[in-house]
Design a protein that fits this description.
- By secondary structure, the protein is of the alpha/beta class.
- It folds into 2 domains: about 1-30; about 30-205, Carbonic anhydrase (Beta-carbonic Anhydrase, Chain A, 3-Layer(aba) Sandwich).
- The chain has helices at about 1-20, 20-25, 45-50, 75-85, 100-110, 115-120, 125-135, 140-160, 165-170; strands spanning about 35-40, 55-60, 90-100, 175-185, 190-195, 200.
- A hairpin with a 6-residue loop joins strand 4 (about 175-185) and strand 5.
- The longest helix is centred in the C-terminal third of the chain and has 20 residues, at about 140-160.
- It is globular, with a radius of gyration of 18 Å.
């Protein structure tokens, strides 16, 4: 805790003074460029990964970067998405999973969730991911299986995202783009889903997701 307190002091004494004008602008509101939905994992820092400043991204985090389908729950995820799209007028939504994800590990191995009923219940929003893995990836195990689960889960959550009326309307008129990313913790690499290739590719090679349905993330992988 002492480290956090020292960090706050350093922020106020050093960083804040250098960006005083920027923070004064925040009094009048915010205008983020994108909604970034990712995992609560402490190894993920959206602003560090994207090299963005405060105010440039609207960030939503939870275990497993899950997006419950519209109407499935009254939790904060739907409210955050709706606010970002309708009130803030963001033009891009990124759903970013990551390697070595504990939530996806729990989805694959529910015995590891003993004593965590809330986590187990939350992961029901990834039930489609679990079934996709069980029925289409019997040949994988270990780290390859976990990474494939992370990728498929990103695509499932993008499908869930499309169930929100505010998202569907703007996708239909071309006023919104959605992106599926996977961050590799050990290397810092970011991969994005390329619909034309039906797989995740290095970010610089990818284009925005269209509104059409997708194939299995690893179906055409090398």
């Amino acid at each position: 805790m002492e480290k956090l307190v020292r960090g706050v002091e350093a922020f106020q004494q050093n960083y804040l003074s250098s960006y005083r004008e920027l923070f004064e602008k925040f009094i009048h509101g915010q205008a983020p460029e994108a909604l970034f939905i990712t995992c609560s994992d402490s190894r993920i820092n959206p602003n560090l990964i994207t090299q963005t400043e405060p105010g440039e991204m609207f960030i939503l985090r939870n275990a497993g970067n899950l997006i419950p389908p519209f109407g499935a729950t009254s939790g904060g995820e739907g409210a955050s998405i709706e606010y970002a799209v309708v009130a803030l007028g963001i033009k891009d939504i990124i759903v970013c999973g990551h390697s070595h994800c504990g939530a996806m590990g729990g989805l694959l191995y529910p015995e590891n969730l003993e004593g965590m009923p809330l986590v187990e219940g939350w992961l029901k929003h990834a039930e489609a991911t679990r079934q996709i893995m069980a029925q289409n990836y019997q040949d994988l195990e270990g780290d390859p299986l976990l990474m494939a689960t992370v990728e498929e889960n990103v695509l499932v959550q993008l499908d869930n995202l499309r169930t929100y009326p505010c998202v569907a309307v703007r996708l239909a008129r071309g006023a919104l783009r959605i992106h599926g990313w996977v961050y590799e913790v050990q290397t810092g690499e970011v991969f994005a889903y390329e619909a034309e290739k039906g797989q995740f590719v290095p970010l610089r090679e990818a284009s925005p997701m269209p509104t059409i349905s997708r194939r299995l993330a690893r179906q055409t992988s090398p």
